[in-house]
Amino acid sequence: MKNGQDRILAAIDVGTNAVRLEIARPLPDGTLETLHQERDPIRPGEGVFTSGVLSRAVADRLLATLRRYAALCRRHRARTRAVATSAVREARNREEIVRRVRDEAGLELEVVSGREEARLICLGVLHGRPASARSLVIDIGGGSTEVATGQGERPRVLHSVAVGAVRLTEIFGTSGRVSPERLAVMRSYAAEAFREALPRRLPTPRVALGSSGTINAVVGAGSDSRRLTRRRLERTVAELAGMTLAERRRRFEPRRAEIVVAGAVILEAAMRHLGLDTVVAVDTGLRNGVLRDLMRRSPAAAAAAAEGRTDAVVALGRRFGFDERHARQVARLALDLFDQLAAVHRLPASARGLLEAAALLHDVGHAVSPQRHHKHTFYLVANADVPGFSDQERLLVALVARYHRRTPPEAGRPDLEELTAGELRLVRRLVALLRVADALDRSHHQPVAAVRAVLRDGIVRVAARARGPVDLELWDVAREAAYFRQAIGRRVEVVASAR
Fold first, then answer.
1. Residue 5: is its pLDDT beyond 60?
2. How far apart, in whole angstroms, are the C-alpha atoms of residue 228 and residue 271?
3. 452 with 462: CB under 8 angstroms?
4. Which stretches within 223-298 are classed as H helix?
5. In which region does residue 100 sit, left (phi positive, over 0), alpha (psi from -120 to 50) or beta (all else)?
6. H or E, element range at 454
7. pLDDT of residue 298
8. How far is Cα 100 from Cα 82, in angstroms, rounded to an integer?
9. What pLDDT sits at residue 349?
10. Residue predicted with more confidence, 218 or 115
11. Span 167-209, pLDDT tens digits
12. Considering the domain 4-111, what is its CATH architecture?
C-alpha cells in the first residue's frame, strides 16, 4: 500500500427504510476508525411491497443520495461495497435500478440474498466475541427479518424471514393508532411468517443480540437499559399501538414513528417463536459487516474467505448427494487450467472462484433427473442461497454449470439475454475450461493425476499425466475442442503420458 488512503473502506447499505454510508480506516489492532457516517431516511422501499416496483420518484430520491455518497467515497479514495436488501431485491425493476446506479452514480450496487444479508449482519455484530460464545442475532429491516446463529465471530445458521417493519406497516395500514382487532391480525401474520421460514427447533441461547434501528427503538421504548424482556415487550407492543402517530413522533424520529408498531410486533413474534427471554440491543449491523467483509477481502485474508465460500459450495453439493470425488477432480483440473492459461483466457482473478463453484456443482441436477440434468443444475444453483456469493455471482455460477454439456452458451439464448457483453464473454470462456476439465474425468474414475497446459506455436497443448486408461477422456476432449477454439480462440490438444 502506498499510503493510508489506500486502506480506507466504505460501506453503503440501501435498506428499505433508509440508506446508510460509513467510511472507515482499519487500524493495526483490527478495529475500525470511522471517518464519515451518514443516514438518509428516504425509504427506498416505499410502495414496493404493494406495487412490486420502485417508483420513479423513489428511484430518483435514491439516485440523488447515492450520487452524493459516491462522491464522498471517491474523495476518500475508498474501496467501496454497496449492497441493497429486500426492497430492491423484490422489485421487478431492480435491474433498471442497478443499471441507473451504475450509470448515474458510478457504483456497482450488489443486490444481496436474504442469507447473504444475514451473514454480513453476523460479521458486524459478532466481531470480537469469544471463540466459545454461542450467539443468536436478530435484525429487523424494512422488508425482511434476518435470524442467524454464530459461534465466536463465525456465522453458522442463516435465515431470512419475509416480514419487515415497512412491509407490515404497508400491508395493514398501521402508521397511526392501531385497534386491538388489527393488532391481533398483525400478530397472527407475523407469527405465521416465522413458522413458515424457520425450523420448529432452532437451537439458540435464551438471549438474542438485536441489531437494526427498529430493534434499538423498540428496546428504548420499553426499557431504560439496552435489555428488554419478552414480558415487557408484550406490554410495549400494546402501548405503542394505542398511541396516535403524533404521540409517537414525540418519542421517535418521524419515519421511525410510522413503522415502530410493526417492528415491535415482529420482534415479539421472533422472540415467541425462538423461545427467547431477552433481547439486547446492539449498535452494529449490516454496514459494519460489509466493512468487515471488505477487510477480509484484502490479499492477506483472501485465502480464508475463498475457503469459506468453497465450504458453502461443497455443503450445497452434499445436500443434493453429488458425486463428490468427481466434482472435486473436475474442480481441481479446471483450476489448474485456469491458472496455467491465464495469459490465454485473460479473465480476471475473481473469475477463479466462480469456475471452482461451477465445477463443484455442475452435476447436482442429477438429484432431480439424469436426463437434462444440466438444466436442473441451473435451476438448483440459481435458486440456492450460497453464503459468500452475491445474487449475480450465483447466476454466473449457475450458467457456467448449466452449459457444461450439450448446447454451448451462444449470444441470443433466453437465459443469457440479461448478461452484459463482458459477463457473456466470461461465461463462455469459463464454460470452455469447465468442459475440458469435465471431459478429463468422463469415466468418473479420476484417471488423470495432473495436467500441464502451455501455449506453444499458437496451440494450447495439455499434457495429462495418467494413472489409468484415458481413452474415453481423450475422445471426449476432442469433442470439446471445437467449442474451446470458438470461445478462447485457440486450438487445444491433449496428450496423455503414463504416471
1. no
2. 11
3. yes
4. 230-241, 245-249, 254-274, 286-296
5. alpha
6. strand 448-456
7. 60
8. 14
9. 84
10. 218
11. 999 999 888 899 999 999 999 999 999 999 987 666 678 899 9
12. 2-Layer Sandwich (3.30)
Residues 6+ apart with CB under 8 A from 186: 168, 172, 174, 178, 261, 262, 265
Residue extents of the structural domains in the chain: 4-111, 115-287, 298-498
Cα–Cα distance, 276 to 230 (Å, whole number): 7
Query: Model-level pTM?
Result: 0.68
DSSP states of 177-228 as a string?
Answer: ---HHHHHHHHHHHHHHHHHHS-S-----SEEEEESHHHHHHHHHH-SSSEE
| Residue with cell string 455471482 | 393
CA gap 414, 453 in Å, rounded: 34
297 has a pLDDT exceeding 80: no
Residues 6+ apart with CB under 8 A from 371: none
Provide the CATH topology of domain 115-287.
Nucleotidyltransferase; domain 5 (3.30.420)
Quick one: pLDDT band at residue 271, thresholds 50, 70, 90? very high
Residue 198 to residue 227: CA distance in whole angstroms: 24
DSSP states of 32-46 as a string? EEEEEEEEE---TTT
CATH no., domain 298-498: 1.10.3210.10
Lowest mean pLDDT among 261-275, 292-306, 307-321, 466-480: 292-306
Average pLDDT of the residues in 44-53: 92
Question: Which CA distances in Å does 305 have to 154, 292, 387?
Answer: 12, 12, 11
Q: Tell which residue, 312, 444, 477, 478, has the closest CA to residue 366.
A: 444
Q: Tens of pLDDT along 316-340? A: 999 999 999 999 999 999 999 999 9
Residue whose C-alpha is closest to residue 19's, from 115, 130, 105, 146: 105
Give the span between the Cα atoms of 117 and 139, in whole angstroms: 10
State pLDDT tens for residues 82-122: 999 999 999 999 999 999 999 999 999 999 888 889 999 99
Q: What are the φ/ψ torsions at residue 412 (nearest 5 degrees)?
A: 100, -15
**DSSP H helix total and E strand total for the chain:** 20, 14
- Judge contact between 232 and 267, C-beta under 8 A: no
Stretch (H or E) spanning 453: strand 448-456
